[in-house]
Design a protein that fits this description.
Length: 552
């Protein structure tokens, strides 16, 4: 966005906005628009005080258009009176966005003037918004038709695929890169021979083989997504079959970001390109057969007991998630950093024992929850919340009681009128019945309203009872979690948001954990006053823990 220095001349204060759509268009387009708008402003007696511009920005959304957003911010400051544009589609080619811009500027008393159309009104906004959006959508259809025609000719309809390079000066043509093609053949051969994508990815990273888009090799890079037929093992281009239109791009109306959505297989377009085959069809079919066999999980393995810390564990070395990684000879479950498992890129690839980490979390929670500061703070917060709820409940109860009094009085008047013969009973009777039904509803609502709670006093006996319950809670939860009790695991997960696991160099086989949970948000700095971090068979005090503070 470019903003010029203010110019002191007479007339209404005006600002100019200019935009062109893509980096394929002429950069002079902005200068031409500004020149045209300045000429118009001079002819109309307007004083141009600023100009705003967006280069290579689509008119399909206002998101990411810094020049337009800056102009709208200045409009709220009432720093100008008129916006001059070459045409309304420079502001937006989306009906909703263009109408919104016009609505907001009109509310601020700011005119929009188009060089070829003059002062913009609601009718013109509606017409131009419709025409602009239809033009944009028609262009999208034309582009897709053009791409479909290219694919039929065996030309690429999208970006580069790993293993290929573009042919200079010949749009859509591809040639095989032999160095990358050797990596493709190796992946397929090793996979068919029985190796897993994780193992293959680890070896490629160790050998510093360049990955697609310059990132590290991951199991997902090789495996891909089955629904989208993505990933190296599922890419049919490697057997000389170009498949296009697997996905479609849609724009999120709230963020302006483009998102991919999978298309039905019946919408896919296929073209034979045997000159681009890197592997033979037999090897490709063998890989698909093995993928199919590996995707069929025995029903007995499909449902596993939910673990206490599933999805909550984080690696202290790299911040990635952690997952189970087999058992030792005694049956104890190991956990390991997912980045170490998937790509081998974590600096700490060793495993931890899950029961040791779970014990640390249970003991740590018990140690922290028994602290008098925590209990006192909890009770204080609890009382404040109860008072707030009580005030809300009292206000609601008062409203219901007022409504009930009004209805009772109206029913009494109706009954008196019927008794004295003042009015038609056929009219007053049904009205009285309806009011009686409404009265019963309000009475029921009053009965359902909770009674005013009594305040909780922090007595020493309460602390003793609280500690006894914590001891029982730890034992009960420890046994329940060990047997896969999902309800017990959920109780712990209500207190814990994340558990970061570190290796403790001061103790052989020791680990340290950082627990971030709901206490942080509830109690702030009072949370975890004992700063428990270490575990070596049992939790011990450590130093230096600064617990994060996630949302409640």
């Amino acid at each position: 966005m470019k903003e010029n220095s203010p110019i002191e001349t007479k007339g209404k204060r005006a600002t100019i906005y200019a935009r062109f759509s893509t980096d394929l268009q002429n950069e002079r387009s902005i200068e031409d628009q500004l020149s045209l708008c300045r000429t118009y402003a001079e002819r109309e007696g307007l004083t141009v005080i600023r100009t705003y511009e967006d280069r290579a920005r689509s008119g399909g959304s206002i998101m990411g258009r810094e020049g337009l957003l800056r102009m709208l911010d200045h409009a709220r400051e009432e720093s100008f009176d008129v916006v001059v544009v070459e045409a309304l589609d420079r502001l937006s080619r989306d009906m909703e966005d263009l109408a919104g811009i016009h609505k907001r500027l009109s509310f601020l008393g700011i005119e929009i003037r188009a060089v070829h159309e003059g002062v913009v009104n609601t009718v013109l906004v509606g017409l131009r918004g419709l025409v602009g959006q239809l033009y944009r959508e028609d262009n999208a259809h034309k582009v897709r038709r053009g791409l479909a025609g290219r694919v039929k000719q065996g030309l690429a309809g999208g970006g580069l695929t790993y293993g290929y390079a573009a042919v200079a000066g010949r749009s859509g043509e591809r040639v095989i890169l032999e160095a990358e093609a050797q990596v493709i053949r190796r992946i397929f051969q090793e996979y068919v021979s029985g190796r897993t994508p994780r193992e293959i990815a680890h070896d490629l990273n160790k050998e510093r083989v360049s990955a697609p888009r310059g990132r590290a090799w991951n199991a997902s890079t090789i495996n891909g997504n089955r629904e989208r037929a993505a990933g190296i093992l599922q890419n049919e281009l490697y057997v000389g079959r170009l498949v296009w239109n697997k996905v479609r791009m849609v724009k999120d109306p709230d963020t302006g970001k483009r998102l991919s959505r999978p298309n039905a297989r019946s919408d896919w377009q296929v073209a034979e390109v045997p000159h681009l085959a890197i592997i033979d069809s037999e090897l490709f079919r063998a890989a698909q057969q093995r993928k199919q066999e590996r995707s069929c999980t025995h029903p007995s393995h499909q449902r596993r007991p939910r673990r206490m810390l599933s999805g909550l564990l984080r690696c202290g070395s790299c911040g990635s998630g952690m997952a189970t990684n087999g058992r030792d000879k005694s049956g104890r479950v190991r956990i390991r950093c997912s980045a170490a498992t998937e790509s081998g890129m974590c600096p700490d690839a060793k495993t931890f024992y899950l029961d040791t980490v779970e014990s640390a979390v249970l003991s740590g929670l018990k140690t922290e929850l028994r602290a008098p500061k925590v209990i006192a703070e909890y009770v204080r917060t609890y009382l404040e919340e109860r008072k707030r709820l009580t005030a809300t409940s009292n206000a609601k109860r008062q409203r219901l009681e007022q409504q009930l009094g009004q209805i009772n009085r109206e029913i009494e008047r109706l009954v008196d009128a019927i008794a004295k013969g003042h009015g038609d009973p056929s009219v007053l009777g049904p009205r009285s019945t309806a009011l009686d039904a409404e009265r019963k509803r309000i009475i029921q609502a009053l009965q359902n309203e909770p009674t005013i709670p009594k305040e909780v006093a922090l007595h020493p006996a309460v602390l003793n009872r609280y500690e006894e319950q914590l001891n029982r809670l730890e034992d009960a939860l420890g046994k329940s979690v060990a047997t896969g009790d999902a309800e017990a695991a959920e109780a712990i997960r209500d207190l814990v948001d994340t558990v970061t696991v570190f290796r403790d160099p001061a103790r052989s086989g020791g680990v340290a954990v950082e627990i971030a949970g709901r206490l942080n948000a509830l109690l702030g700095e009072a949370a975890y006053p004992n700063r428990v971090t270490g575990v070596w068979g049992k939790v011990v005090a450590g130093e230096g823990l600064e617990p994060p503070t996630p949302g409640l």
